[in-house]
Amino acid sequence: MSRSLTLAAIGACVLVIASIVVSAWPGGSGLRPPGTPSPDATTAAAFTGVYRIGALGDADPGGGQDAVLNRSVARALSDHGNGSGGGNGGVATPPLAVSDLTAHKESTEPANRRLIARWLEMEPGLTGVVGGDPALKLPESGLTSFRLPVVRACRHDGAGLSPEPRYADTNELRSSASTADMGVVMARHLAAEPGVRKVYVRGDTAAGPTRALVERLRADGVEVRTDDAGQLADALGRFDPDAVFLEGGAGNLADWLEQVEESGFAGVKALWDPTAPTCTGRNTAADEDFSVPDGWLTVRGHYDVRLDPDAGRRAAVRKVLGDDLATRPYAVETYDAARAMLSAWDTVSAEDRNSNEPDMARAALAEALPTVRVRGTLGGWWTELSEAEAHPVVWLDRREGGQWRQEAEERR
């Protein structure tokens, strides 16, 4: 038994279903024309022999679709079907068709209780979902008789502060770092700086990255002083820290950064960037009037082809995704998550695929997903999703000349 997904916050999300047409089942639904209504969620569609991988995008602030995530999944499906670095000896993925579904945005029960069940009523061949949408809490209450595996490709807020739930219970894996992962990596980096024995932290210590950072620093023997009010210059003078870490909204940070700079503090300076992307959709906080002085460090949870010093990897990413998509946040993480889902699909036996019982194919894919050897990833940081979840990659950037420069690429 597994739990179904629940929508935790009011917001829109888009479920884009990339269809894998199995050779034993000719044809496919093709691309649903814009404006064509989706099947009614209360009416179960018959399985037509078309298996599908879903792409769950986060809401676009302008009310549109999250095209970046959708395009990344579609590109991965296309490359896998063409044999570009894909396949684990299984049946090759045939050409795909794509259909768009708009997920329900209500945040109250009982509407969200059966979210997965409604997806499967509309798309009975759905075998797995690649997605982000930090507003959608995956998964939650309600038991079902099927397993629908999910790979979250975007930043997960709050994960990692307590023991991770088991995949067998949640059917969810992550291909990118959570905010807590990012806090841990920043803490390790600060603790490793020469002469850092005391760190002053200003901000919400209950927030995922800050809490994780404080806990890790103290575990490493670093003395930490925290508060969220008062004049920073006074606090720095009393505590005399070797490093400072700031976390807050853009308005507060602008004021705090000015106070630290005017105090003449000469130690290590780091911050949590509230304008950083959280998924492939646009972060509304990026519109805030906020700038960071030179010399400050921040932590990043997604690959950025513009900052990567590895020329070979930069070229490979641009070749596969194209110049536009390659520069979008979490596009690489989404592409790699989709390749993992498709590699797991390759292991599903012909008997399960051709049984006309999608539950069997879905269960087989779910079983293989955590440890299947994945080929064709762009990042090259992991070869199976269990490794990606246990040791996600996080980047550290330093502000220089009014621009961010990548300083380190580290595993959690």
Structure notes:
The protein has 412 residues and is an alpha/beta fold. The protein has 2 domains: 2-177 and 316-380, Rossmann fold (3-Layer(aba) Sandwich); 179-300 and 394-411, Rossmann fold (3-Layer(aba) Sandwich). It is 31% helix and 20% strand. It contains 12 helices and 17 strands. It has a 6-stranded mixed β-sheet with strand order 5-3-4-6-9-10. It has a 4-stranded parallel β-sheet with strand order 12-11-13-14, sandwiched between helices. Helix 5 links the parallel strand 11 and strand 12. The relative contact order is 0.16. The model is unreliable at 1-17, 19-42, 84-113 and 138-145 (pLDDT under 50).
Computed over alpha carbons, the radius of gyration is 22 Å
Estimate percent helicity: 25-40%
**Second CATH tier, the architecture of the largest domain:** 3-Layer(aba) Sandwich
Elements, N to C (H/E):
EEEEHEHEEEEHEHEHEHEHEEHHHHHEE
Distance between the termini: 31 Å
What percentage of the residues does DSSP assign to strands (E)? 15-25%
Number of domains as seen in the coordinates: 2
Shape: elongated
Mean pLDDT, as a whole number? 75
CATH-assigned fold name of the largest domain = Rossmann fold
As residue ranges, the low-confidence spans are 1-17, 19-42, 84-113, 138-145
Main sheet? 6 strands, mixed
Number of DSSP-assigned strands = 17
- What is the level 1 CATH name of the largest domain? Alpha Beta
- Please state the structural category: alpha/beta
Number of helices: 12
Sheet with most strands: strand arrangement: 5-3-4-6-9-10
